[in-house]
Amino acid sequence: MTAAYDPPATRGIEAPRAPKRRVAGRKSNFEMYSWLFMRLSGIVLVVLVLGHLLIMNILDGGVHRINWGFVAGRWASPYWQVWDLVMLWLAELHGANGLRVVINDYARKDSTRFWLQLMLAASVVLILGVGTLVIFTFDPNMS
């Protein structure tokens, strides 16, 4: 062997944006729970979305039967309201969590990361608020 050989065990790779300091006695598992949420919500979303697509696009005439009356009849049932609400919340939080990771990976400056995450949080609150409001206040008798 030559003297220039440097075994992999002696080389160190610094973690990107590693925390500068840790608060003593406080250990956060946020990233682990975030990772776990992505996996579990992904599984549940596959079932919810495939069920939604099957019902809305394939069964009983497909998309040609979807109109105001169909939506009114569907959301008259608390079962379908909860189905659509869970699908909305899981999809929004799943996507926002993924985008949060992308922002953390690619935003170089702390200020840029802060503003991007603030805009992401604001959009999540807005979409969840409006979507939930629409599902629960939908009036089938609106003229």
Q: What is the N-to-C succession of helices and strands?
A: HHHH
Radius of gyration: 23 Å
Beta percentage is under 5%
Unreliable segments (pLDDT under 50, ≥5 consecutive)?
Answer: none
CATH class: Mainly Alpha
Oligomer classification: single chain
Structural class by secondary-structure content = mainly alpha
How far is it from the N-terminal to the C-terminal residue, by CA?
85 Å
Total count of domains: 1
User: Per the principal axes of the C-alpha atoms, what is the gross shape?
Assistant: elongated
**Would you identify the CATH architecture?**
Up-down Bundle
Residues in helix, %: 55-70%
Number of helices: 4
Average pLDDT rating: 86
Biggest β-sheet: count, sense, barrel? none
The number of strands is: 0
CATH topology: 3 helical TM bundles of succinate and fumarate reductases
Q: What is the CATH homology-level superfamily?
A: Fumarate reductase/succinate dehydrogenase, transmembrane subunit
